[in-house]
């Protein structure tokens, strides 16, 4: 079975402001079925989040609140939680 690059990803969320202000992830080269890879990623996530490199959301991403206040470098949770199917390459 061929291996492929798979990634454990985390959105770093501020519940008080209700925004994501960072992303984090770790990549692996894995083989097996999609279900097997997902199961392994779930197990690895118990410790991966501690050592995964964190990245700020780029300033080009902005939120404008109803009161007109603009905040750069953040996105609403729906920006990453909406389920999308991406093609395999």
Explain this structure.
- The protein has 89 residues and is α+β, with helices and mostly antiparallel strands.
- It has one domain (4-81).
- It contains two helices and six strands; from the N terminus they run E-E-H-E-E-E-E-H.
- The chain has helices at residues 34-51, 78-81, and strands spanning 4-14, 19-30, 53-56, 62-64, 70-72, 75-76.
- Strand 1 (4-14) and strand 2 form a beta hairpin.
- It is elongated.
- It starts with a strand and ends in an 8-residue tail after the last helix.
- The model has no long low-confidence stretch (mean pLDDT 86).
Low-confidence stretches: none
Rg of Cα set = 16 Å
Average pLDDT metric: 86
What profile does the largest beta sheet have?
4 strands, antiparallel
Counting DSSP E segments of at least 2 residues, the number of strands comes to 6
User: Class by helix and strand content?
Assistant: alpha+beta
Domain unit count = 1
Shape: elongated
The number of distinct helices, counting runs of at least 4 residues, comes to 2
**Strand composition percent:** 35-45%
Give the ordered list of helices and strands. EEHEEEEH
Helical residue percent?
A: 10-25%
Topology (elements, then pairings):
Layout: E1 4-14, E2 19-30, H1 34-51, E3 53-56, E4 62-64, E5 70-72, E6 75-76, H2 78-81
Antiparallel strand pairs: 1-2, 2-3, 2-6, 4-5
Record keyword descriptors for this entry:
89 residues; alpha+beta; four-stranded antiparallel sheet; 6 strands; 25% helix
């Amino acid at each position: 079975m061929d291996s492929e690059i798979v990634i454990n990803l985390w959105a770093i969320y501020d519940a008080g402001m209700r925004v994501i202000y960072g992303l984090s992830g770790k990549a692996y080269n894995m083989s097996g079925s999609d279900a097997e890879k997902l199961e392994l990623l779930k197990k690895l996530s118990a410790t991966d989040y501690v050592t995964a490199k964190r990245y700020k959301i780029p300033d080009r991403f902005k939120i404008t609140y109803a009161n007109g206040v603009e905040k750069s470098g953040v996105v609403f949770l729906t920006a990453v939680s909406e389920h999308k199917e991406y093609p395999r390459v």
